[in-house]
């Protein structure tokens, strides 16, 4: 079944990516898993954005997820987390549309210091709901000129995005953004090869 789980918009500073807006559809997970799943999606989205160069698109395959990312030359970035069945070209076209709308509504002088609370951009829930069905994005696929000029890099695991010598287990254990409960959930999910495994 085709499924979109999350859309996030980041500003990628020199050393770190900062989330400006995000929205999630985690109804397919049990109530008790949603908090941990959301934390891992945030963590993976931020990590992939930080490891993606400006003017680059990537699609990172990780178990049952595809993490699609696009970092523009102005360091505005967007990440879409979907299942494997969601078409990559549609995902990247949607990322382009979302960032174009975001940059038209939120001036670039707000990006570096903005937070999810201070940025006024309320369209992500509508995008996530409307484009659950990729056929809704058919009119968007006419915006191909930008995509056709940009190579989309496909990665098989998040490990391939990390800098040489980095390990996802180490990043998770050192992360101050993940709660102890989410770290324990990550370890359990890794051992049982659960649906939420990002390693």
Walkthrough of the structure:
The relative contact order is 0.20. Helix 1 (34-50) packs across helix 6. The two termini are 23 Å apart. With 199 residues, this protein is an alpha+beta fold. The radius of gyration is 16 Å and the shape is globular. The model has no long low-confidence stretch (mean pLDDT 82). It has a 6-stranded mixed beta sheet, sandwiched between helices. The chain contains 6 helices and 6 strands.
Say how many strands there are: 6
The structural class is: alpha+beta
- SSE pattern, N- to C-terminal: EEHEEEHHHEHH
Task: Sum up the overall morphology in one term.
Answer: globular
Describe the biggest sheet? Answer: 6 strands, mixed
What's the arrangement of strands in the largest beta sheet?
Answer: 2-1-5-4-3-6
Strand percentage: 15-25%
Helix content: 25-40%
Whole-angstrom Rg: 16 Å
Provide mean pLDDT, rounded. 82
Count of runs of 4 or more consecutive helical residues: 6
Distance between the termini: 23 Å
Weakly predicted, low-confidence segments: none
Summarize the structure.
34% of the residues lie in helices and 22% in strands. It has 199 residues and is an alpha+beta fold. Helix 1 packs across helix 6.
């Amino acid at each position: 079944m085709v499924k979109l789980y999350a859309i996030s918009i980041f500003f990628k500073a020199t050393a770190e990516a900062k989330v400006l807006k995000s929205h999630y559809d985690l109804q397919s997970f049990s109530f008790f898993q949603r908090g941990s799943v959301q934390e891992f999606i945030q963590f993976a989205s931020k990590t992939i954005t930080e490891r993606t160069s400006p003017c680059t698109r990537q699609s990172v395959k990780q178990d049952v997820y595809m993490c699609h990312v696009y970092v523009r030359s102005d360091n505005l970035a967007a990440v879409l987390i979907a299942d494997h069945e969601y078409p990559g070209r549609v995902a990247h076209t949607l990322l382009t549309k979302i960032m174009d709308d975001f940059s038209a509504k939120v001036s670039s002088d707000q990006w570096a210091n903005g937070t999810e609370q201070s940025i006024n951009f309320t369209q992500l829930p509508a995008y996530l709901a409307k484009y659950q069905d990729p056929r809704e994005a058919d009119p968007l696929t006419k915006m191909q000129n930008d995509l056709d000029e940009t190579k989309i890099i496909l990665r098989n695991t998040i490990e391939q995005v990390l800098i040489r010598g980095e390990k996802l287990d180490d990043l998770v254990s050192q992360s101050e953004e993940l709660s102890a409960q989410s770290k324990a959930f990550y370890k359990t999910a890794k051992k049982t090869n659960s649906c939420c495994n990002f390693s």
